[in-house]
Amino acid sequence: MTLNVIDGTAPSLKPLDAQVQVFKTLTHPARIAILNLLRDGEHCVCHMEAFLGFRQAYISQQLSVLREAGLIQDRRDGWNIYYRVTNPQIYVVLDAASQLTGQPTAGTAKPETTCPCPHCNPKE
Fold it and tell me: What is the pTM for the complete model shown?
């Protein structure tokens, strides 16, 4: 059974299990990159592809882990599914890790290629 770290739902929850699960979820660089991209609001998978340079299937796998952990939520709008962070306190953890390691937070500079989503290309 998957543990939702946000609401702590599980058959029996030892005192530190939820905290451990947050750190386990954050052990993948792609998940951290996705969370950093979501700092400025919700994005669709095609947007994440353009910004991060990962394949759609790979991003979807990482989104699934983040969603199961309760760190992100999705919403459908037509053909697009948009993802957003459920609790911005996760950025306190990510920022603390950046400060601890002396490594800057991964940037979300505009990619050279743009994605076709309505977020990037609104109808005029």
Answer: 0.80
